[in-house]
Amino acid sequence: MPIKIPDQLPAVNILRQENIFVMPESRAESQNIRPLKVLLLNLMPKKIETETQFMRLLSNSPLQVDVELLRIDNRPSKNTPTEHLDTFYRQFEAVSTRNFDGLIVTGAPLGLVQFEDVIYWEHFQSIMSWAEKHVTSTMYVCWAAQAGLKMLYDLPKRTRKDKLSGVYWHQTNKAHNHHPLLRGFDDSFLAPHSRYADFSPEYLIEHTDLDILATSATAGTYLAATKDKRNVFVTGHPEYDSHTLHSEYVRDFNEGMEPIVPSNYYPDDDPSQEPYVSWRSHGHMLFANWLNYCVYQQTPFDLEHFSESAFTIDEE
Length: 316
Prior knowledge:
It contains nine helices and twelve strands. The protein has helices spanning 11-17, 25-28, 47-58, 82-88, 121-134, 143-153, 201-207, 244-254, 280-296; strands at 3-5, 22-24, 36-41, 65-70, 89-90, 100-105, 135-141, 159-172, 188-197, 211-216, 220-225, 231-234. Strands 1, 2, 3, 4, 5, 6, 7, 8, 9, 10, 11 and 12 form a twelve-stranded mixed β-sheet that branches. Helix 1 (11-17) crosses helix 3 (47-58). It is globular and about 50 Å long. The active site is at 142 (acyl-thioester intermediate), 237 (proton acceptor), 239.
């Protein structure tokens, strides 16, 4: 089944060139089925690049997904044309009275900024509080995972001394081998990270009731979820394209920041060589599992009848 997005969105042509089934709104309106309503809160500066990355992962499912794009505020963007934002993105006030099957909150370049110093922190908190009553399952990615832990568990911001950048091996937690989010996963898998945030498994186990699903000896906790699967935390970037880490490295290098070479990313760790992708299959599987088991299997058929009390905790 296809992903349904606005006809003129730049991602349409990119995904079609990759033989991904994209259904424009004009065609989808003639189908008599109930698509999943997913909201993407895009906090990244290069919004067109990020929205395309996430839509690519959302498309790998037998479910029809109706994606709407949300921006955090109306401040001008240095990296995205105003026309694009005005055409395809909504303000929160435009969707605040509606219910959604899923919400994805992207990362943001705020790794060393304290929460209270984030210019839109209060608005972000309002959206996350709204989601608890209006969204079946929310996925928090990278910076958003740290912000979500602050919102739900009041965990303080914890940062690493050096930036974590590269592609790292992770292991699934054998205590949760049958968790729906891990269906089809190998015991070990690769995933990219680009962050200062510290997600120690021991710290999360001590201070939360989360199911810790996958960890890395180097990167710490990678995947965790509340027991009702309504909140999923992904600390890395499974959506990244092959050159995203490279672009970040070149950007930081050109700004004189002396960045470390992303680990396990370039052949022979040589930035002059073409990077290779080793995480694509894992990323697609993670999003397919989230859509199927955390969203589709739990959401009410009629979103107008959304109720927090309707959700039950499934045994693994």
